[in-house]
What we know:
Number of strands: 4
Number of helices: 3
Radius of gyration: 14 Å
CATH architecture: 2-Layer Sandwich
Strand content: 15-25%
Strand order of the largest sheet: 3-2-1-4
Order of helices and strands: HEEEHEH
CATH topology: Nucleotidyltransferase, domain 5
CATH class: Alpha Beta
Shape: globular
Amino acid sequence: MDQAKQRVVSRHRVKERIRRKVNGTADRPRLAVYRSLKYIYAQVIDDASGKTIASASSREKDSNAKGANAAAAKAVGALIAKKAKDKGVTQVVFDRGGYQFHGNIKALADAARENGLQF
């Protein structure tokens, strides 16, 4: 297996291990993060009912950021916090999606915390 495939397989293994421990409820939904090479995405999910409460990405026009860099991650973090608070969600469980809590993932989490989400 080449190095790129091995990295993807390893991340999925870590992601599955995290998902066994992190579960979103109606009281504390899960803030899930996905990072591609071009964009960064975040969703607030109630796993009990299987519904997405709010979502944000760097592809949206109102995110004021382009790409998948730290500035875009901060904008998406602020946007997801605003959308979640509009829906009445203040506490979430953070699901880093198998990525290291560093760089863009940390920037998104810090921006969400600064804008009122608690986790």
